[in-house]
Amino acid sequence: MTRVAAAIRAANDDGRAALVVYLPAGYPDMATSRACLEAAAEAGADVLEVGFPYSDPLMDGPTIQAASQAALDQGYSPADDFAMCAELTANVAVPVLLMTYYNLAWHYGNSDRLDAFATDAAGAGLAGAILPDLPAEEGAPWCAVAAAHDLATVFLAAPSSPDARLRPVAERSTGWVYATSTLGVTGERASLSQAAAPLVARLRRHTDRPVAVGIGVSTEHHAREVAGFADGVIVGSAVVRAAGEGGPAAVGALVAELAAGCRREG
Amino acid sequence: MTATDPDLAAAAARAHYGRFGGRFVPEALMAALDELEQAFADAAADPAFAARLRDLQRDYGGRPTPLYHARRLSEHAGGARIFLKREDLAHTGSHKLCNVLGQGLLSERMGKRRLIAETGAGQHGVATATIAALLGMECVVYMGEEDTRRQRLNVVRMRLMGAEVVPVTSGTRTLKDAINEAMRDWVTNVDETHYLIGSVVGPHPFPMIVREFVKVIGTEIRARMLEVEGRLPDAVVACVGGGSNAMGAFHPFIDDQGVRLVGVEAGGEGLDGVRHAATITGGSEGILHGARSFVLQDDYGQVRPTHSVSAGLDYPGVGPEHAWLADSGRATYVAATDAEALEGFRLLCDLRGSSRRWNRRTRCCPRCALPPSSAPRRSSCSTCRGAVTKTSTRSAACSTSRVR
To answer: Strand A177-180 relative to strand B284-288: parallel, antiparallel, unpaired?
Structure first.
């Protein structure tokens, strides 16, 4: 079992859904983004996702688009993001994954450089990577490289995925299976999509790997709902907004609330 | 009509062109891409679909378009005999309608009554708005804010036809960002929406479907050349942004080894710097908008802003089949700078006289078509040296009536 899957199972054994928190590197600046991620770990996050900002984030809504653009405007490159991750992973005990778009992994310094990218990811102490625009059928090269560097892989499942797609998605996900609660881009929603629970139920028929739910999970209340049927709760945009508005203190306060929501009663 | 070709079933099964192409999109869209691929395969096997498309192409779209021997231009150039494929004479003023008619009918077959599209210069947006009106569908067009300014008349045309035009303010505010925004819409509303991509780009099956619908251009060229000249052309030359008109013109000639295929990319201010949009000539391999192809990007895979005097070519990617044609050597790609392209345009006006399709609202120089954002504040146009009237507008404009 990968470190990432083990961390999720450890939280589950403790009577909780694992809390996975996303923040982009370099927002609002590089030092503060690290402080925010450390605050998230301190306040109860079980797994951290570090976004590597990309010029064309077509899976992201306005909050993460704006944060990514702000980081890019400061001139940060993936090399700077890795350097920050190396410091972060030295300071926190929880596993840290990177999340970015496939081209940053594939065109790393030059074309077809997945291995160099994975080498630097492992070198920075990262435990895995999420590449949301890499579907399972194009994922073989990345999976081979990730396995060689002991990096967990996470693939997405969507409410629109037919059953025939869920098995290969789950088989390639050595960290967890990322169930997107709704069709759409990242961003806060008023209420949790009703599509999340049925998707998790369908995934359970194909895998015993951890299943975590993200996209539109924003509040303690949402976290409590998701904790009722999934192994992990993934929160991004709400935490990014907190980072922008109130820095590490605001992130810590929000993550503590979300962590309380992940606790299962009884 | 192309959709009944026997090789289609084989083509439909192919997601890759050599190492290029593929599907690099969020999982939420994978089912929709499968559905689209199936719908296309079904349509291709349905003679009624082919007949309806053929009738619309002829009676509504104005096809076939003329192939005209430009004699004075040929004499002036002193080399090849030059023929012009007059796609500007098709309905809506560009080749874009071929693809849009085909995909519109496909969308109707799939029961999707909402069309979304991206547009750069506005030609694809206008074509999509037109077809949405024809078929009674809802239409939303994403257009970079920068492009809505420099191509304002097309925004008006789209709105007249009932389309909603959404100016995109993210990123570089041009075509690539319009595609990002259209993808975001599609991933959110995929159940009832068809994303009518306007070029041979995007994840499989889009590059294949768009090519199949636009290759009528090359099929017509081939037939007409054989009819009037009794032979095939020595070369087919077309401009390449995303690459749909070039792919349409090239594809029926791919197996004719005697026919050179030449794609001309937008060289902007020159390939020495970064102010260009010559993706194959000046880019590197990468993954953008769902496909592996050539991309204008930095060392870390961040997509670079591009520049071209042509809003329609101002795009940092290119269709994966072009990447494959370039890589295999079957087609050659070169770049022409803004100045060279404008010189060509001016030459065509002088020697042929029919390309002065012009509107006063864009306030561009009528001889060189320089758009207002880069028009010089001087009493003559710096590009074509024609006389210019100073005006009180934001950009010193070349006035149509005052130029000699």
So the answer is: unpaired
Q: Give the pLDDT band (50/70/90) at residue B355.
A: very low
Model pLDDT, residue B85: 97
Q: Are B131 and B100 in contact (CB under 8 A)?
A: yes
Distance CA B112, CA A123 (A): 48
Q: Which residue has the tokens 């789950």?
A: A170
Inter-chain CB proximity B170 and A65 less than 8 Å? yes
Give yes or no for a contact between B297 and B304, defined as CB atoms under 8 angstroms apart.
yes
Residue A224 · residue A261 · CB < 8 Å: yes
Whether the predicted pLDDT of A214 surpasses 60 = yes
User: Nearest 10 degrees: CA dihedral of B69, B70, B76, B82?
Assistant: -50
B285 and A137 within 8 Å at the Cβ level: the answer is no
Q: Where are the beta strands (DSSP E) in B193-259?
A: 193-195, 235-240
**A49 in catalytic set:** yes
Nearest to B288 among A103, A134, A155 (CB): A103
Query: Nearest-CA neighbor of A124 among A80, A65, A190, A176?
Result: A80
Q: Is B21 left (phi over 0), alpha (psi -120 to 50) or beta?
A: left
Nearest CA distance, B291 vs chain A (angstrom): 10
For A115, list phi and psi in degrees, rounded to 5. Answer: -65, -40
Sheet bearing B260-268, strands edge to edge: B235-240, B260-268, B331-337
Q: Which residues pair with B207 in a beta bridge?
A: none
How large is the average pLDDT for residues B252-267?
97
Does residue B284 sit at the A interface (CB-CB below 8 Å)? yes
Residue A171: active-site member: no
Distance CA B266, CA B246 (A): 13
**Strand A47-51 vs strand A18-24: parallel, antiparallel, or unpaired?**
parallel
Q: Containing H/E element for B142?
A: strand B138-144
Residues in B closer than 8 angstroms to A54, CB to CB, are 301-302
pLDDT tens-digit readout, A128-157: 999 999 999 899 999 999 999 999 999 999
Taking phi first (over 0 means left), then psi (-120 to 50 degrees means alpha), and beta for anything else, what does residue B353 get?
Answer: left
Task: Report CA dihedral (B169, B170, B171, B177) to the nearest 10 degrees.
Answer: -90
Q: What is the pTM of this model?
A: 0.90
SS3 A265: coil
pLDDT at position B349: 86
Question: Is some CB atom of chain A closer than 8 A to the CB atom of B224?
Answer: no
Place of tokens 């689209």: B36
Radius of gyration of chain A (CA): 17
Q: Return the closest-CA partner of residue B201 out of B218, B171, B178.
A: B178
- Looking at domain A3-262, does it have CATH number 3.20.20.70? yes
pLDDT score of A204: 97
What ranges do the domains of chain A cover? 3-262
> Which ipTM did the prediction report?
0.95
